[in-house]
Amino acid sequence: MLKGIDPILNADVLYALRAMGHGDDLIIADTNFPSDSVARETVLGEVLRIDRPAAEVVRAVLSLYPIDTFVDDAAARMEVVGEPDTILPVMAEVQAEVKAAGGPDPMLPIERFAFYDRAKQAYAVIQTGERRFYGCFAFRKGVIPPDEA
Fold this sequence. Notes:
Largest sheet: 6 strands, mixed
Strand order of the largest sheet: 2-5-1-6-3-4
Radius of gyration: 14 Å
Helix content: 25-40%
CATH superfamily: RbsD-like domain
Structural class: alpha/beta
CATH topology: RbsD-like fold
Number of strands: 6
Number of helices: 5
Shape: globular
Strand content: 15-25%
């Protein structure tokens, strides 16, 4: 356990978050997402796991992870198939966490197969314990400015 770091963030996740650079993507996915097979194609090459609800995982991650402010697709969600404008409760909960962290509101919707393609290009995939459908999100890493001199 470390002071100031959410205890659900395990050592493997902390390593990946620290190793990522500006513009790298992080996928936070539900239990139904093909996390293992997709993660094999990412930079990290293996799936990370935090067995908690999606919004809890997003809150913990965004407590350390800056969201990119230079692009329009810094925070994205997988669309409901055939209903791209539908916002499910899991999406609303994650959107609230993104907004609280200073991220975009609304998140960019991405069609399911386009989301899979983006996920395969990501740095890492965190599979959560989220059992509700469409609890899949992508976050582009931003920068932390230097301290004022």
